[in-house]
Amino acid sequence: MKKNIIIHWFRYDLRLSDNPALKAAIDKGTVLPIYIKDTHNADDYAMGSASKWWLHHGLKSLEQSLEGNLSFYSGDPMAILKKIAEHFSVQAIHWNRCYEPWMIKRDTKIKEYFKEHGVDVNSYNASLLWEPWTIKKDNGEPYKVFTPFYKKGCLGSATPRPAIQKIHTAAYVKDNVSSCTLENLQLLPGIDWDKMLEPHWDISEQGAQKCFIDFLDKGLEGYKEGRNFPAKENVSRLSPYLHFGHISPNQIWDELSTLESTIHTDHFRSELAWREFSYSQLYINPDLPKVNLQKKFDNFPWRDSSELLKKWQQGITGIPMVDAGMRELWQTGYMHNRVRMIVGSFLVKNLRLHWRHGERWFWDTLVDADLANNSASWQWIAGCGADAAPYFRIFNPVTQGQKFDPEGEYIRKYIPELCDLPNKYLFNPWEAPDNILKLARVQLGSTYPNPIVDLKQSRVDALSAFQSLKAGL
């Protein structure tokens, strides 16, 4: 039996750099690095398909970084940790904190059990700049509006901890008795869909660092305005790397602090803070993924149409800006943030389908599917969340496309069947004269669908539904 083993339980911290729990474990002695696929506690929020695909490759890269010394398990973490403790003389268990409600509940039970049985259990913050329970108003209440949350709460509190610059090489041990292989976790989807995703991502700690460096070199200058244009390079695409912990927000914050302060660096920091705000909302409201924060929306007259939902999911709504976004999502596992707002508004306002339908689809298909960000963002676009866009703010996907994709590069990339349409009609092909459609080889209802809803009328209907809600009808 191995003596004085320190377990480091990897979760959303798939990196060796700036990993507080791993560093503390290494400082104490011989480390058993483990990953557990929890099949016992997740309920409705087990990982979606895209997330599991990303996780598989992230764990594969991490295993290589650890020179094969990563032990995999599948099942109930409490039972698995007990079994490990029976085989090894476990001195301590270390992990970095997760903030999903079901994980908090699970981890609390595990921590209590092992402490009662003489095993030291320590948890650390490796994924947020500020702990969600620390950012409060002077009267102790949580912030409900982003700007004061960030400027008074975050920036008015303690500075985020500096990133750990170097973790010394550890003495690792592997469990060759009760562990399984990465393939045994069965994370890869059983369809070829994930093959489309592979060319778009380098899923590794090194890939995260390269992505960040590329953004600093090519995308940060002009970020404040350029981030709204989906064909430009002014987005970082760091969200999946942050979610799975291939890079920490502290590493990003520290690097930004070495640069000249501009409106672009300041705005990028504020986007990191939106992530913090979402986690604060989830911590305060554990039912955020399912329950309207604004209770008046409990009586909203949502429509019910599986046919409309499916067309939205498949990117065949006949509204080019919406379809381009949904196809980008399916082909890459990612969607530009401006376009997320456009497709979200279309779903909940023009189609008047419940925001949870969108939340669930994003949960399954986004590689950056994150319970806090996904839930808070959908409640924001639906108008029922904290500091939400008002319901009567309805994005017009035609004018949004004309403004933010003026040359049609984004639409033509994801809807090649419209590539020969002139820009004048690219965003609204149903208004193009027959001769223009014929020259562009576009046949509405055949090569590209007719709109599934009239934008003007659906806007009127959405506002009427909202007015009925306000009137209590």
Strand tally: 5
Portion in helices? 40-55%
The span between the termini is: 70 Å
The CATH superfamily of the largest domain is DNA Cyclobutane Dipyrimidine Photolyase, subunit A, domain 3
Largest sheet: 5 strands, parallel
SSE string, helices as H and strands as E? EHEHEHEHEHHHHHHHHHHHHHHHHH
Going by helix content, strand content and strand pairing, the class is alpha/beta
CA radius of gyration: 24 Å
Overall, the morphology is globular
Q: Enumerate the spans where pLDDT stays under 50 for 5 or more consecutive residues.
A: none
Examine the secondary-structure arrangement and name the CATH architecture of the largest domain: Orthogonal Bundle
Number of helical segments with 4 or more residues: 21
Per CATH, the class of the largest domain reads Mainly Alpha
> How many independent structural domains?
3
Average of the residue pLDDT scores: 95
Strand content: 5-15%
Sequence of strands across the biggest β-sheet: 3-2-1-4-5
CATH names the topology of the largest domain as DNA Cyclobutane Dipyrimidine Photolyase, subunit A, domain 3
